[in-house]
Amino acid sequence: QLNLDKLDQICENTKRLDHVSKFSRLCFGDSHCFSAYLPGNLVCRNDGLTLYSTLRDGLKNVIEEKTGLKTENLTHLTFYMGNIDIRHHLCRQENPQERVHAMIIELSHQLKNLGIPNIEIVHVLPIEDISRKLPKSGYYKGTPYYGSWEERTKLVHTFNMSVDKIAIENDWSVFRWPAAFLSEKGELEFDYMERPKSVHLSPLAYRWDLFEDQLNFLHDNSGEQ
Predict the structure, then answer these.
(1) Model confidence over 128-158: pLDDT tens digits?
(2) Nearest to 179 by CA among 222, 122, 216, 124
């Protein structure tokens, strides 16, 4: 039988550690960022965090507040945000395409100011067929998304092309999701999404195979640069 009093005593006498070790490699993003993990990275997942609010509050401030790490101590940053903005927010704006361009330009500016030597930006995901049933936890203002599939797909293309542009300009890396994830119509196939209903990728489709502890074979030709 467990001696709960003794366990309480041990806990009270144990020094708390905020971080077991110091990390110099960080994967930072919203609830999608687990799928971009690579070994050696600290992953900081922030459910519901938008790119818009992160840039508004300051990328450096947000990273340091959420992780407890100082950005000047980082050597590598994998940055993955934007899916929530496209799903729920951008199509509510007067000119969504212009908003995307403005956000990516501001992202470029704030990433440069971090001074991190190695930066990688992850492409946002393609849009799945609108027939997919989603949990109410993923709703915003009572809806699972805002904007048609076509409108949001155009935003995905604009977002990813803009990311490619700033990456070339700043000698950063880009991680792209495999074309195999797409249907003939260009939708994200349900087979690669988390079951039974989710907006996220299935762990079986993650960049790193968590079961075999190796690069997922699906990403051997993913277009990573």
Answers:
(1) 999 988 888 788 888 888 899 999 999 999 9
(2) 222
8 Å CB contact between 118 and 180: no
Say whether 74 sits in a helix, a strand or coil.
Answer: coil
Chain centre to alpha carbon of residue 177: 12
Q: What are phi and psi of 29, to 5 degrees?
A: 175, -160
Of residues 220 and 27, more confidently modeled: 27
Read off the pTM: 0.87
Judge contact between 37 and 203, C-beta under 8 A. Answer: no
Q: How far is CA 123 from CA 32, 187, 192, 222, in A?
A: 11, 15, 16, 11
Say if CB 56 and CB 41 are below 8 A apart.
no
Map tokens 């092309």 to a residue: 161
Say what percent of the chain tops pLDDT 70.
94
CA-to-CA distance for 39 and 206, rounded, in angstroms? 12
Selection from 177, 173, 183, 160 nearest residue 218 by Cα: 177
Q: Mention every residue, 6+ apart, whose C-beta is less than 8 A from residue 175.
A: 36, 78, 120, 121, 122, 123, 207, 222, 224
What is the rounded distance in angstroms from the CA atom of residue 25 to the CA atom of residue 109? 20
Count other C-beta atoms under 10 Å from residue 43's C-beta: 19
* Secondary structure of residue 198 in the 3-state scheme: coil
Q: What are phi and psi of 33, to 5 degrees?
A: -70, -20
Token representation of residue 167: 């990456």
